[in-house]
Amino acid sequence: MSYYQRDMECASRETMRKIQTERLAGTVAHAYKNVPYYRALMDKKGVRPEDIKSPDDLGKLPFLSKDDLREAYPYGLLAVPLSEAVRIQSTSGTTGKRVVAFYTQRDIDLWDECCARAIVAAGGGKDDVVHVSYGYGLFTGGPGLNGGSHKVGSLTLPMSSGNTERQIQFMCDLGSTILCCTPSYAAYLAESIISQGLSDKIRLKAGIFGAEAWSEEMRRDIEARLSIKAYDIYGLTEISGPGVSFECSEQTGMHVNEDHFIAEIIDPATGEALPDGSKGELVFSCITKEAFPLLRYRTRDICVLSRKQCSCGRTLVKMSKPMGRSDDMLIIRGVNVFPSQIEAVLMHAGFPSNYQIIIDRVNYTDTFEVQAEMTPEMFSDTVKHVSARENELLAAMRSMLGISPKVTLVAPRSIARSEGKAVRIVDRRKI
Amino acid sequence: MVIEQLSVFVENKLGHLSDIAEILGGAGIDMRALSIADTAEFGVLRLIVSDTRRARELLAEAGCVVSVTRVLAVSLEDRPGSLAKILRALSDAGVSVEYVYAFITQKQGNAYVVLRVEDNARASEILEKSGACAGGEGDIFPL
């Protein structure tokens, strides 16, 4: 069994508690001192940094959520001077405003180490060719796995997403051994490789797939079609990016990098902390971050934590795959989409707010349609004019969401309502 | 002659067009001419009817998106070359035609074309001068 950082990944519970206790106290003091926004929240709750003596005291700290990130946008939660921050990554916010997260060089190094652990857990080493087909740019997927692969010392192929022909050509020519991308893109690549009769030419042995929900059935299917072992990886931009937790050879949940992020499960309705093994909302407290040290950040992902002994030897707590959300966020083709964003675009473009989002999964790829209601003001006797409105709406959606839905204009009042309340989201995906 | 045309947004959905036709038929509204422009996603149904105002009200009540456009209806002889003459006269004068559709009338030997142009008055004038029209527009629903 190989590990990237054995001392942390296999630390005893006592050692880990000690590390967490020390680091948590340091981070709380740092956030209180340098983030006026969080200091105000703590003051309001009547909690002082010295009240947090161990992870048992986490419950005394106020929560942070995406709403706080929007409120404090853009620099309100930055805990270091601009001169110390070296990177920004970004993800969707709930309404228009994106979430921005900051990193110092040390933050990037630690994030890369988290991803390196995931690569090593998937069997990666110095001799591997790591093929990164996650998007690069503001999205954390590409930069995270890229950095992790460097730390491991693997040869890194920064492919980014798209251009499937070129992906496959490089995979064949350069002998990629580990593929990193969304599970749906892995399934799509597998299908293309098989249909082109190139299965014999690829040398993949493992895949690290995350950023969207996928089933055990889909895992087995990808594994069979690419002759690989497929590993799940989890993360979110607010906390760092991919590598907050990662799967090992046991494939029964993802080990949380507890020396950097303390995980809690809470009741999403009351905010009360629940014991290990309960199903509830996952909350993370960063304990090593300098630039963006979010404490008790509510992920809205519904999960279960398990401390059952793992056959891989790691002692890091395991989280289940997210089983749902405690808000209305959708993950479509790996991208976070909030219905409120779609509503904002429609209103801005002059369409009524009665819309419907229809999501399905065809050949492992998400299809995404937004139906908007036509109005007499929008309508005209010429097709050219109506098509132009449709295209404007499509461009505005793409710009807001970062992915393109199919936009369909429908007759007014034709969108189904149930008991007077419109059904906004029809998610037909069977994951 | 300038007449009113009813345009209706038609979703590309089974039964939507028949719903519209039934509403008009049920109210005793007569259709004189009809054309549909379609894309993969939707269609624009264009109608010349006996009672534009009433038809518009009924369709709007039924939840349709409707608009009324003033278009040019030109009478011409129902024989080869008639339409070509009209279109040539317009293009020679630099007038673009957005869309056109034709129908014949109950009167033997007579046909109509409905033209959508930017400036109805100017196009009328050009056509009158060209002598390409047949005149006698009594059997189309007047404005």
Task: Give a topology summary.
The complex is a heterodimer of chains A (431) and B (143).
Chain A: H1 6-9, H2 13-34, H3 36-45, H4 66-71, E1 85-91, E2 99-104, H5 105-121, E3 129-132, H6 141-152, E4 155-158, H7 164-174, E5 178-181, H8 183-195, E6 206-210, H9 216-226, E7 229-235, E8 242-247, E9 254-256, E10 261-266, E11 273-274, E12 279-286, E13 297-306, E14 318-319, E15 324-325, E16 330-332, E17 335-337, H10 339-348, E18 355-362, E19 365-373, H11 383-401, E20 406-410, E21 417-418, E22 421-422, E23 425-427
Parallel strand pairs in A: 3-4, 3-5, 5-6, 6-7, 18-23, 19-20
Antiparallel strand pairs in A: 1-2, 7-8, 8-9, 9-14, 10-11, 10-12, 12-13, 13-14, 13-15, 16-17, 18-19, 21-22
Helix pairs in contact in A: 2-3, 5-6, 8-9, 10-11
Chain B: E1 2-11, H1 16-26, E2 31-38, E3 42-49, H2 52-61, E4 66-77, H3 82-92, E5 97-104, E6 110-117, H4 120-130
Antiparallel strand pairs in B: 1-3, 1-4, 2-3, 4-6, 5-6
Question: How would you sum up this structure, described in words?
Answer:
The complex is a heterodimer of chains A (431) and B (143). Chain A is α/β, with parallel strands linked by helices. Chain A folds into 2 domains: 70-326, ANL, N-terminal domain (Rossmann fold, 3-Layer(aba) Sandwich); 335-427, ANL, C-terminal domain (GMP Synthetase, Chain A, domain 3), CATH 3.30.300. Chain A is built from 11 helices and 23 strands. In chain A, the strands form 5 sheets. In chain A, strands 3, 4, 5, 6, 7, 8, 9, 10, 11, 12, 13, 14 and 15 form a 13-stranded mixed beta sheet that branches. In chain A, strands 20-19-18-23 form a 4-stranded mixed beta sheet. In chain A, strand 7 (229-235) and strand 8 form a beta hairpin. In chain A, helix 2 (13-34) crosses helix 3. The longest helix of chain A is centred in the first third of the chain and has 22 residues, at 13-34. By secondary structure, chain B is an alpha+beta fold. Chain B has 2 domains: 2-68, VC0802-like (2-Layer Sandwich); 70-130, 2-Layer Sandwich (Alpha-Beta Plaits), CATH 3.30.70.260. Chain B has 4 helices and 6 strands. In chain B, strand 2 and strand 3 (42-49) form a beta hairpin. The longest helix of chain B is centred in the N-terminal third of the chain and has 11 residues, at 16-26. The mean pLDDT of chain B is 87. At the A-B interface, helix 11 and strand 20 of A face strand 1, strand 3 and strand 4 of B.
